[in-house]
Design goal:
The protein has about 140 residues and is mainly alpha-helical. The chain is about 70% helix and about 5% strand. It has two domains: about 15-110; about 110-140, no CATH class. It contains two helices and three strands, in the order H-E-E-E-H. It has a three-stranded antiparallel sheet.
Length: about 140
């Protein structure tokens, strides 16, 4: 016969039922304690998930704000470049006007061409309207 098995009936101790009840009570207490621990862990996990969700939201919000700042910086830079180009364009136009005024002043001193025709501004000097005479900008000191 296997160990612990006998053909004779086992004698139960007089406290068998009370011991069994105590074991059942301890088991129930352990189950309740495990349920409490499980509830606590579930609550902690939920709290951690909420914290993680908030952290992710804050991180996404920071990324969105950073991107907005980058776009704003690009817009400001583009506007500054546009203003600088416009300023340079106006400066060059003023310089051309100044040079033309200087040339016109020289032409007033010199007068009309020897044949009596008007002078017309070209890319690198002046030509006579009848196309026979030419004066470089360098000859005028421009």
């Amino acid at each position: 016969m296997p160990y612990g098995c006998s053909s004779r009936p086992t004698k139960r101790s007089p406290n068998f039922h009370s011991e069994r009840q105590e074991k059942m009570i301890r088991y129930q207490q352990l189950v309740k304690a495990a349920e409490k621990v499980e509830q606590k862990l579930t609550a902690e996990a939920t709290a951690l998930q909420e914290i993680q969700a908030k952290s992710e939201y804050k991180a996404l919000e920071l990324l969105r704000k950073r991107e907005q700042a980058r776009i704003k910086e690009l817009e400001v830079r583009a506007e500054r470049e546009r203003v600088e180009k416009e300023f340079e364009r106006r400066r060059k136009a003023e310089e051309r006007k100044r040079k033309e005024a200087k040339a016109q002043a020289k032409w007033r001193k010199i007068g009309i061409c020897p044949a009596g025709f008007q002078w017309i501004k070209q890319s690198s000097g002046y030509r006579r309207s009848a196309r026979a005479h030419w004066v470089d900008d360098a000859q005028l000191g421009l």
